[in-house]
Each structure stands twice: as structure tokens, then as C-alpha cells.
Write a structure and sequence with these properties.
Layout: H1 4-10, E1 19-20, H2 26-36, E2 48-54, H3 56-72, H4 78-85, E3 93-99, H5 109-129, E4 133-137, H6 145-150, E5 158-168, H7 180-183
Antiparallel strand pairs: 1-5, 2-3, 3-5, 4-5
Helix pairs in contact: 2-5, 3-4
The structure holds flavin mononucleotide (FMN).
């Protein structure tokens, strides 16, 4: 296995359509979720939870998403509705990271949201370390209350992202990265 810093320096998102099976084994999935729950978390509030979509769960999630889409876009042609059905179908595993707010006198919502972001990133890093490709995606249905209700989120929960995980079908070229000179200053 490459050195952890190499992994962090070279990690790249993989598009779900460029992923195949196999996905993580049950033991690997448990590792990925364990790492997702091991993040900085002011006040130990655990202001996040995960929903796993695998196998038939991805099909049922697609039905939920496509039904909401068809209701809101009654003119949509069948191929567009089919595309909505396939939203979670490319990668063998999708983990939704849910951000939830624990009312607290000292710990602002912002810090709890950041912890959910850290959780999403840890899931990506763990999946990458196990040799899988991963991608943090949202989409309209990540912000649509009816879609979120159908996927099992409570009214006060928000979707930080869907992390798609699978085996990359090809080598992915890097993309340009910001120059440190543009983003780093010294005080
Ligand atoms: C909160 C969040 C939501 C995102 N949603 C999408 C999305 O819906 N579609 C998309 O193409 N990229 C989305 N991205 C970007 C990808 O996750 C990824 O950053 C991008 O493909 C660049 O890949 P890299 O990880 O190799 O830098 C999102 C990123 C974040 C942090």
C-alpha cells in the first residue's frame, strides 16, 4: 500500500459512470463507516448519520427520486424520468451523509455542519485507501424536501452529500489544483 501522504496527494474523484463493481465487502463497508464516524466533533454531538444504498436499495431510491421528479415536471419525457431512476445506479455503493443539528448552548450550527463535511471526506479517504474510487455528489434531489422525506431524512435533517463508491474502470487524470501562492498567506 502506498504511503498515506501519497494517497492524500494523489486522490481524485471518480465519476460514478466510470465505476464498476465490485464495491466494498461488508467488512470494508464497516471500516469505511467507522472511519466516517471518527472525525473532529466539538462537544461529541455526533451531528451526522449515514444511509447506505446498495443493491436493490439503489433501485428503490431511484424510484423515490424519479417519482418526485415526475410529479414536479409533469411534461418530462420518459427518458428523463428513466435517468432520474438511475441516479444511484452507477456505483455499487452510495453512502448518504446526513447532517443533523443538536441544539447546544455553546456549539454553533456551523461547527456541526463542518463536522458532517469532515465525515463525508473521511468516508472518501477510507474508500480510497481501500483501493476504491469515490465521489461526493449532491444534485437537485439533495435539496428537495419531498425527495429527502422519501429517502428517510427527518424534517430537520439535511443531506451533506451522496458518496458514490466503486471500482474505477479506468485511470483518472488529475485536474488543475489551486496554486498555494493564491490561497496561502502568512500572518
Ligand atoms: C458538497 C459537495 C457537493 C458536490 N456535488 C457535486 C455534484 O452534484 N456534481 C458534481 O459534478 N460534482 C460535485 N461535487 C464535486 C466533486 O465531489 C469533486 O470535488 C469534483 O469532481 C473534483 O474532484 P476531486 O475530488 O478530484 O478534486 C461536490 C462537492 C462537494 C464538496
Amino acid at each position: 500500500m502506498s504511503h498515506p501522504i501519497e494517497l492524500l496527494k494523489t486522490r481524485r474523484s471518480v465519476k460514478p459512470r466510470e465505476m464498476n463493481g465490485p464495491g466494498p465487502s461488508p467488512a470494508e463497508l464497516e471500516t469505511i463507516l467507522t472511519v466516517g464516524a471518527r472525525v473532529p466533533d466539538h462537544g461529541k454531538l455526533a451531528p451526522w448519520r449515514f444511509i447506505v444504498f446498495e443493491g436493490d436499495g439503489r433501485v428503490r431510491a431511484g424510484e423515490v427520486i424519479a417519482n418526485v421528479f415526475a410529479r414536479k415536471e409533469p411534461q418530462a419525457p420518459p427518458d428523463k424520468i428513466d435517468a432520474e431512476k438511475r441516479r444511484l445506479m452507477d456505483a455499487p455503493l452510495v453512502i448518504a451523509v446526513i447532517s443533523l443539528m443538536r441544539p447546544h448552548p455553546k456549539i454553533p450550527a456551523w461547527e456541526q455542519e463542518l463536522s458532517a463535511g469532515a465525515s463525508a471526506m473521511n468516508i472518501i479517504t477510507a474508500a480510497t485507501a481501500l483501493g476504491y474510487g469515490a465521489n461526493w455528489l449532491t444534485g437537485w434531489f439533495a435539496y428537495d424536501r419531498d425527495a429527502l422525506d422519501g429517502l428517510g431524512l427527518k424534517a430537520d435533517e439535511r443531506l451533506a452529500g451522496f458518496i458514490h463508491i466503486g471500482t474505477p474502470s479506468r485511470h483518472i487524470e488529475d485536474r488543475p489544483r489551486p496554486a498555494l501562492a493564491d490561497i496561502v498567506t502568512r500572518f
